Amino acid sequence: MIQNHDPDYEPLHPERLTWSVLLGRWVTFAKSALALPSDDAGRRLRDAVPDIITLQAVWFSLENLDELDADERALGLDKAQVLIEKHTAALEQAWAEEPMPKELLELIHDAKTALQEQRGQEG
After folding, report:
1. In the chain, where are the structural domains located?
2. pLDDT digit string, tens, across residues 31-49
């Protein structure tokens, strides 16, 4: 094993790497949304990017909620619920006239399920 004796050296943290990978993926997704066609479907998806990214971030945060103190965890659950409701409503409104893409339905389901699971662990 290689030892690093540099006092400024910080080991890699998998949870930070995971967050960095996730963030990089969504930055790439957001940039690619700029190339969507300017028709109704392309515009709808482009406008939904912030909602999609927020729901993904909430899901990820819920998966790592056990890293917080109990008081912060309760507040995090409340914030997660508000964000899930807000961004789900925005997506539902955007697709009110069309069937929502399967991937978005799965994202909403995953975020809501993660919240329910964390609420179940709270008690």
Report:
1. 29-121
2. 776 677 788 888 888 888 8
